[in-house]
Specification:
The complex is a heterodimer of chains A (151) and B (158). Chain A is α/β, with parallel strands linked by helices and 151 residues long. Chain A has one domain: Glycogen Phosphorylase B (Rossmann fold). In chain A, α4 links the parallel β5 and β6. In chain A, α2 packs across α3. The radius of gyration of chain A is 14 Å and the shape is globular. The model of chain A has no long low-confidence stretch (mean pLDDT 96). Chain B is built from six helices and six strands; from the N terminus they run βαββαβαβαβαα. Chain B has a six-stranded parallel β-sheet with strand order 3-2-1-4-5-6, with helices on both faces. In chain B, α1 packs parallel to α5. The longest helix of chain B is centred in the N-terminal third of the chain and has 13 residues. The N and C termini of chain B lie far apart (49 Å). The mean pLDDT of chain B is 97. The chains are: A alpha/beta (151), B alpha/beta (158). The interface between A and B is large, with 46 and 36 residues.
């Protein structure tokens, strides 16, 4: 029986988050994947198309509001079955709206957070179907899971 | 060419100034710096606040040495191109980042092939004087660990 291909939205803000997301690409084979980031020039990395949203962090409330609105718009347009993100704030927003829209969501905390989970990573817990750290020593039965690392 | 980069978000004047002052004493050395929304304007170092991602990639591939904040984007890119990278961690106490995760990154990766840590700005000049001894790593795989890829695939298709 043929299954419908899953629609996947892969999300990361710029810099290290984006570099880590790109390292996950083999996992996306077999799904229809769209990318969302904070810099439209990253489109070149992913075959020409991505959704660009405002860069914002938890410390700039106005930019944060704008970014959440933009992410909501993309989510309504793409209607992904699955959201996968390596952070940071735009990934949080995508998981939040993804969950409201019935998607299954994965938060992969940046490998940079080797001593404790990131701020967004801590806050996203209740919205993430899978809540993942890249550090074995940070994983716990009642905490984030360890699934491997980007390096 | 020495490439200095502070990443895509925040300025890191302490690092840029350290390299700038070193270049004052080493004017024949070629260098370029991406300095972010900086206050400190280097005098001896050609710089731009930001560069486009494809341009950044080209600069990494052409550089002989990367001098960088301890951010994963810069480190993973340097490792990919087998370039030696000298990292100086940002410190939250100096307002350089929101927390000290870069100190943790420096502790974790310092001493791995290709990665050298300048804990303080004074260390930067010392390592730059000795740059002939900074070597690139053996390269890294293009993608995440097979374990992470397999777990994600499993999640996507379950």
């Amino acid at each position: 029986m043929a299954h419908r291909r899953k629609k996947l939205l892969a999300v990361a803000s710029g810099g290290g988050h984006w570099v880590q997301l790109l390292r996950l690409r083999p996992a996306f084979e077999g799904a229809d994947v769209e990318f969302m980031s904070t810099n439209s020039a990253y489109a070149k990395d992913v075959g020409g198309h991505l959704y660009a949203v405002t860069d914002a962090n938890l410390w700039n409330k106005l930019a944060l509001l704008k970014m959440f609105a933009e992410v909501a718009w993309v989510m309504l347009k793409v209607r992904p079955d699955i959201v996968i993100t390596t952070g940071a704030a735009p990934g949080f927003a995508a998981i939040f709206f993804g969950r409201l829209l019935g998607a299954r969501t994965v938060w992969i905390d940046s490998i940079a957070n080797s001593e404790e989970l990131s701020n967004s990573g801590k806050k996203v817990r209740r919205w993430a179907s899978a809540w993942v750290t890249q550090w074995r020593h940070l994983a716990a039965d009642d905490g984030p899971a360890y699934w491997g690392a980007v390096l | 060419m020495i490439l200095v980069t502070v990443g895509t978000q925040l300025a890191f004047d302490r690092l840029v100034e350290a390299v700038d002052l070193w270049l004052e004493r080493n004017p024949s050395e070629k260098a370029f710096a991406q300095i972010g929304p900086a206050e400190y304007r280097p005098q001896h170092l050609e710089s731009q606040d930001f560069v486009r991602p494809d341009q950044a990639d080209l600069l990494f591939s052409k550089a002989d040495l990367i001098v960088s904040h301890a951010g994963m984007g810069s480190i993973l890119t340097a490792l990919k191109y087998k370039k030696p990278i000298l990292i100086m961690p940002r410190r939250a106490a100096l307002g350089e980042h929101r927390n000290d995760h870069q100190l943790a990154t420096a502790k974790w990766l310092g001493g791995k092939p290709g990665v050298t840590v300048a804990w303080e700005a004074d260390d930067v000049a010392r390592f730059l004087d000795d740059r002939a001894n900074l070597r690139g790593g053996e390269g890294i795989s293009e993608f995440a660990s097979p374990e992470l890829i397999a777990n994600l695939k499993n999640f996507i298709h379950s």
